[in-house]
């Protein structure tokens, strides 16, 4: 068999390989050191399912624990008449004195308990939606902050709707300050954490 017969019987793929026109397999075209070459796959983004799962794993347990702590402590102190000093003073800083608050945190907006309860639930719902939609890139401090705010808001809202007032029991003795509770601490610290984390994330993204 001569050379011409070999050429005629060759398949198109064989002829292409002989002529050098067939491109190299995809793995040979990859640039050395690329993620696909090394088997790492594409790099995840900040909005990846892993980030959302992490935020959910932080948000729900923290919010649930803080809410349970708030409701349990208020249920205990509500067993005493208003004005009763249950304990303290401790180190000249605080004492446990029962008070019924019909206003907002720290005793503000007195006699607006139902409206404040509705407002608290609206804010809690808005922050939760934000965290898992527009805020899916949220950092750990932001997520912790939202969890504490939501827990505190729901805790005080439960009191407003069921009792008509909020049970406060932490009273400062070294200065004149409204009596407060665990929910108020969560709301205040939560907003500080949330805005601190938001500012930090914004600054980091600008630097990148």
Structure description:
The chain is mainly alpha-helical. 59% of the residues lie in helices and 10% in strands. It has helices spanning 3-9, 12-19, 26-29, 35-38, 49-77, 113-132, 140-163, 182-207, and strands at residues 85-90, 94-101, 166-172. Strands 1-2-3 form a three-stranded antiparallel β-sheet. A hairpin with a 3-residue loop joins strand 1 (85-90) and strand 2. Helix 7 runs antiparallel to helix 8. The termini are far apart. 28% of the residues are buried. Mean pLDDT is 81; it is low at 27-45.
Summarize the structure.
With 208 residues, the chain is mainly alpha-helical.
Itemize the secondary structure elements and their pairings:
Blueprint: H1 3-9, H2 12-19, H3 26-29, H4 35-38, H5 49-77, E1 85-90, E2 94-101, H6 113-132, H7 140-163, E3 166-172, H8 182-207
Antiparallel strand pairs: 1-2, 2-3
What structural class results from the helix and strand content?
mainly alpha
Rg computed from alpha carbons, rounded to a whole number of angstroms: 31 Å
Report the major sheet: 3 strands, antiparallel
Q: Which regions contain 5 or more consecutive residues with pLDDT less than 50?
A: 27-45
Helix content: 55-70%
Give the mean pLDDT. 81
Helix and strand sequence = HHHHHEEHHEH
Shape: elongated
């Amino acid at each position: 068999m001569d050379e011409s017969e070999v050429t005629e019987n060759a398949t198109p793929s064989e002829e292409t390989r002989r002529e050098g026109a067939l491109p190299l397999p995809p793995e040979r075209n990859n640039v050395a050191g690329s993620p696909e070459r090394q088997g790492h796959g594409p790099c995840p983004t900040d909005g990846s399912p892993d980030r959302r799962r992490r935020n959910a794993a932080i948000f729900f347990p923290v919010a649930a624990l803080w809410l349970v702590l708030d409701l349990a402590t208020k249920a205990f102190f509500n067993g005493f008449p208003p004005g009763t000093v249950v304990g303290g003073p401790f180190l000249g800083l605080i004492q446990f004195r029962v008070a019924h608050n019909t206003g907002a945190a720290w005793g503000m907006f007195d006699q607006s308990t139902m409206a404040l309860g509705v407002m608290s639930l609206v804010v809690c719902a808005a922050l939760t939606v934000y965290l898992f939609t527009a805020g899916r890139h949220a950092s750990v401090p932001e997520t912790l902050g939202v969890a504490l705010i939501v827990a505190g808001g729901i805790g005080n809202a439960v009191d407003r709707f069921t009792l008509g007032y909020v049970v406060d029991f932490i009273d400062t003795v070294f200065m004149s300050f409204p009596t407060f509770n665990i929910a108020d601490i969560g709301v205040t610290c939560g907003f500080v954490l949330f805005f601190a984390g938001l500012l930090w994330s914004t600054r980091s993204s600008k630097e990148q």
